[in-house]
C-alpha cells in the first residue's frame, strides 16, 4: 500500500531521529574501541560523568500574556487560553533551549499518564 504525502512526512522526522541516535552510538563505540587503554579509561570516566549530569527538560504546551489584574482574578476552575490549538506540536526545551517538537500521546504502559512522541529534532547551531 502506497504512503500518502502526510505519512511520508511523518516518517521523515522519525528517520532523522533514528539516524541521530545511531550516529551518537557510533561515536561512543569508536571512542570505546580506541587502542590507548589509558585514553579509553579516561574517556569512559568522562562519558559516565557527562551521562549523569542532570538537565531540566520542559514540555511547553503554549503560553499567553495577561494583565496583572486578570492574573489576580484567577481562581480554581478558571480557564487560561493558550496560544496553541489542540493537535499543534508542543516544544521540548532542555536547559532553556528548544531542541525538538512533538505530539502529546498516552503511554501504552500506563494509560493514566501521558508523554511526548518526538516528531521533529531542531537542528542545533554551535555558538562561537
What this model shows, in words?
With 128 residues, the protein is of the alpha+beta class. The protein folds into 2 domains: 1-53; 55-128, SpoA-like (Surface presentation of antigens (SPOA)). 38% of the residues lie in helices and 21% in strands. It has helices spanning 5-32, 37-51, 68-72; strands at residues 57-60, 90-94, 97-106, 114-121. It has a 4-stranded antiparallel beta sheet with strand order 1-2-3-4. The longest helix has 28 residues, at 5-32. The protein starts with a helix and ends in a 7-residue tail after the last strand.
Architecture blueprint of SSEs:
Layout: H1 5-32, H2 37-51, E1 57-60, H3 68-72, E2 90-94, E3 97-106, E4 114-121
Q: What are the defining features of this structure?
A:
21% strand, four-stranded antiparallel β-sheet, alpha+beta, 2 domains, single chain, disordered N terminus, 4 strands, elongated, Surface presentation of antigens (SPOA)
